[in-house]
Amino acid sequence: MFFLFHLEKIFGWCKYIFLWTAYMTDISRFARRYKGHSYNDFLNFKRNYNKRYLLYTHLIDAFELKRKSVVYLEFGVSKGHSLRYWSSQLKHPGSCFYGFDTFQGLPEAWGMYKIGDMKAAEKELEIDDQRVMLVKGLFQKSLPNTILSIDFSGFEHKVIHLDADLYSSTLFTLATLFPILKPGDILIFDEFNVPLHEFKAFDDFCKAWYADFEFAGAVNNYFQAAFVYRGQKLPTL
């Protein structure tokens, strides 16, 4: 009936509104579920972006990462504030830090931001640490080969920081990293409560891969949120 009468001409304009409302409902349900978690500032009416460093410190202390060899993978480096923080805190000589970015700005429009916005040059980073490596290019081009070149067996822990903003970039990254995920690996999202981007990408990924995660903390009303991978939770057939 929908196809026969071309109802997309009538309802097409409100597709985004319905989709946004559906995922905003899911975020609200998620927020209610974890509002009593020991590390969560919900509900807070003033966003302080520097709180993300408190979340990082909480994770570092909770998982005793300072004494472990860690591979840190960051997607969306911008000016390198988070990458610089993690490399300065984790001094283990066996740790490595990878920063993935186009360094040409956003490859797609994102909300009020246009293609090319949030551009940051590699030379602006200036991280004086030989353990830090920058990987330039679209994730869809740079990530698969880079992952194959890393021997993950030499690390005690993985920290994956997703600051890709976009649904497409976030979902591609999660799907590509899935084969190397192990229980105990940490995922951090930098814009988790944006309903049709990082939140939707994570939700779709968990459903499609039966990936099971434990909530590990959040700040700024779930704008920055962290999870610990627990493995696959496959359905019983």
TrEMBL record:
Keywords noted in UniProt: Methyltransferase, Transferase
Pfam families in the cross-refs: TylF
One GO molecular-function entry: methyltransferase activity
Biological source species: Schleiferia thermophila
Stored PANTHER family: MACROCIN O-METHYLTRANSFERASE
Annotated GO biological process: methylation
Highest taxon of the lineage: Bacteria
Name this protein carries in UniProt: Macrocin-O-methyltransferase TylF
Transmembrane segments: none
